[in-house]
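Hi! If you just cloned this repository, the fastest way to understand the data is to look at a raw example. We've pasted two of them here, unedited. The first protein comes first, obviously.
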Amino acid sequence: MSLDFQRELGEKRAKDLGFDFKVWNEGGKSSNHEEIDKRPVLSQLLTEIQRGAVKHLFVYDQSRLSRNDYVSSIFRYECNKHGVTLYNKEGKYDLANPQDQFLKQILDAVGQFDNAQRTERTRLGKLARIRQGYWLGGPPPYGYEIKDRKLVVNENESKWIRVIFERYADRVPLMDIKAELDRNGVEPRRKRGTWTLGSLQALLRNSHYVGHYDFKDGKSGEEIRTDCPPILSADLWTRVQATREQNMVHRSATNPVKHFYLLKTILRCGHCGTWMSGIYSEHQSKNHYYCPKKERQWRKFQIPDDEKWKRGRVCEMTRSLNLAATDDLVWNAVLDALSKSSLIKEAVKRDALGEGGQRLKASDHEVKVSTNRVRQLKKTLAKSEDSLTDLEAERLMGRITPAQYPKIKETITKETLQIKAEIERLEAFVAGVQQQKSWIDWVGKFRKKIDAYKSFTPEQKKELLQGLVTVIDVHLIDNQTHWLEVQFQLPLVDDNIEHLDVTKKSGYAVKDGTNALMIEMNSRPYAKKKSLQSMG
């Protein structure tokens, strides 16, 4: 049953019959995918049969083509229609012969039944392995690895699992837990980089860490609980789940309308790595972003009152940023970077002019002529395809000789393909010219795109920023100055166009810039309170 052995049998059969041969090798896909569109080699073979290029086909047995009755029926029909003789390890089948066709149908049904039995045995075997504690495949959960096909604890990852759960049980915000993992270079399992809040939330729900997981069989609905080595104590797991429930209740409770913060979850303290919070109170004139680490430390460690207001005690970020001023500064700086980026301009240009970047030139008369030509060719194509049908009928009725049939069919098929190619060429030309009429200058379109960003709602601005920017680190330089380090997803800062041939200025490529943009923000120093002087 090996692929090499199957090939040897096929080559031997071709040699015995005096034929040349071509190998159609799909590897093991015939055992896993029954739909034709998921089997490219099988699809190509079917196309070659339909165009008459295949007349003799060898397969080791029926299952190598398909165990699916629908697919098998298609191949029986096409092989019969195009005069293909089918061979296997036991003999050959002339599908124009009713007896061979009936036998082939029986073998197809047996193959489908065999496939159904194999699928059921596989399902039952999977359930048995699950009950025995074996891992079914795929990446193990973070904190585990696979040995002897079972989950075992990964010592390095498991210690961070304990850190995550202990911090969360102590009511440390997930954003701070993420920052701690990032600072320590702890990477998630499936996606290299930094953790996301969603991945941490999913991890907190994972029952593997308390020593079990559940599997539900899709067919029977049966649920099987499997034991695995625990990483956490039952007490810690219970406390974390209780905290999760309380947080969900708190989030779902009716809250008064809160102020919208454009840069929350984007601004990060460059000194301690804590994600910056926002505060807004119209009555108390509070409207700033600030590092919340100090106030969180108060709650956690009960700092004495006489030390609470000591500047820089917990974090060097001792000065906040005005909300509106910071929002405007960052938004305008990002738009300025976009407007200057060759990478973004090139993307807009391709959108306006197509991949080639060149406009087509044609008169309205040429378009009209091409359109009429396409209409005529489609009528000719329909007649050509009807001729193939008529030719098949003539052959079946014996009105043409077997020697005449392939020559006539080849001529009609060749003509049909030429007509289709000409139709495709003309339609592409007409579509390109029609696109040209709707083109505007791509630079103007780019400017309009930037202008559209300027009219975005606050929510749209935040969505765009989250798509473009990974993080903005804030550094306090002195009492009046912050440096904001904007990290873009793409290297679009100071990128440029590089001509491939400098002398002729023909051909160019976009040269990457950097991902970082530094913004300086100056604030007025705190106003000193004026004291009243008594008149002497």
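Ok, and the second one:
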Amino acid sequence: MKKEIILNATANETRIAITEDGRLAELFVDTPETERMVGDIYLGKVARVLPGIRAAFIDIGHKQDAFLHFSDIGKNVDQYATLFEDEDADIDSDDDDDDDEVDDNPRNSGTATAESTRTVRRGFRRKKQPQDRSADSQPDINLKKGQDIIIQIIKEPVANKGVRVSSEVSLPGRYLVLIPFGGGKVGVSRKITNFREKRRLRRIVRSIMPKNYGAIIRTVAEGRDEEAIKNDLEDLLETWGEIEQSVKTESAPMLLYKDVSTTSSVIRDLFQSDVSRVVVDSKKLYREIRTYVKWFAPHMADKVELYRGREPVFDVFGVEKEIAKSLQRKVWLKSGGYIIIEPTEAMVVIDVNSGRYAANQAQELNSLRTNLEAAREIARQIRLRDIGGIIVIDCIDLEDEKNQKKVYDEFKKELRKDRAKGTVYPMTELALVQITRQRIRQNILHSFAEACPTCGGGGLVASKSSIVNRVERWLRRMVTDNKEFKWTLYVSPILADYLNDGFLSRLFRLQLKYRVRLVLQPDSNLSIDEFRFISHKQKKDLTDNYTE
């Protein structure tokens, strides 16, 4: 599979496209409005503790408090607390030689965040004490209101929800993820399959790791020499030392550590040997990326190319058309079928339709082929749009259980390409396939669009007749309390035409029915469902006085 990274930079936006065999697979957008927050470390203050929902809210200086679920509070939280109390506190370390395999799968532009660290630690504990699994997943919670706590963002804010955080902190580097208070544990990415290489890397890291720290050895560390890994570890330890110093001198809420930008994290985590080239259309960004690549992987520096053409780089690689398609509700399949993607508050619903694909074949075979093609496209759209949470797919009905399993297996196979953790459930009797996918940040659509101010994002607006009914109800309430005769009615031009339509217009009938004189004024600044009543006598807007 040919894999490329294409970067398009403007004054206010950087877009990073990852293509696989010429098709857009993933897209990242870096703007001031969509600033990446996952991986940032804060010194926060506990604002509220709610045992009923097993969660706490942490003040980190944002408009909305951060959400800390009790399951995201690790057993090491008391050890982090020693940073506030005793600078020379000595914490015991467990240096056993368990062969720990972990997944350093980068789910948000490649960064192994605190959430992956939590998974690692639980993996360590499960291996050592399998009999205590249930108790281990629910540690004793001793949080108190007003308490200072170090937390790391693991999920971006979504809609009206604030960020989700964890008290288990990690620092991602190129080859390692440093885990302060990791108890000497060293995990190795399960993507490194060579046993000797895993043992070599673990031996190197353990020989240079300070007491009480832990680490995850990332996939890109495979084949690297001790000097490269040591340099990466020293940089991470230096960063953690600065964080420790800030904790002792600053007061909450306070940003302790800002993770790298989306652009930097993509290059750091995704530019690996399977990438054939990186194409950049900005000289400044090209120099920065090439300098960084020369530092960590000199043999890959020649893969970084500066695009000098006049035509936009995303047009040349066909990315712009793919982005336009990703914003559409309907996505066509090559066979003539199509899928409909409908986001809701609780989940995303995807409907599979055969469309024009109605060949003179057995219905079962026709439905199977459409479902299989849809499974491949849906898996790609999920990655491309970064859809998270619960995804329900309404497939075309299949009678044969073997065919149902084929569709289920196709979904599983395609979603293995996804770096985000997800689970696929077998097709139900109603031909529904359910997927749960880890939600780290908002859907990519939010980078290009915002809710319509008229419909509020619902996609529908009130009908003209319903708005006229609202106007009439306003008049009915007004005449029971006010004896004024003359009013100016401001409405949108569309509604003005509707009110004036016909020989006996709707406006005339309203005046006749309520014995008032209405001077109609079209106002293009008003949306179709807005209207304003101005009193001629008082010379002021009285709309709100009689609004339902």
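That's it. A detail worth noticing about the second one: The first helix runs from residue 77 to 85.
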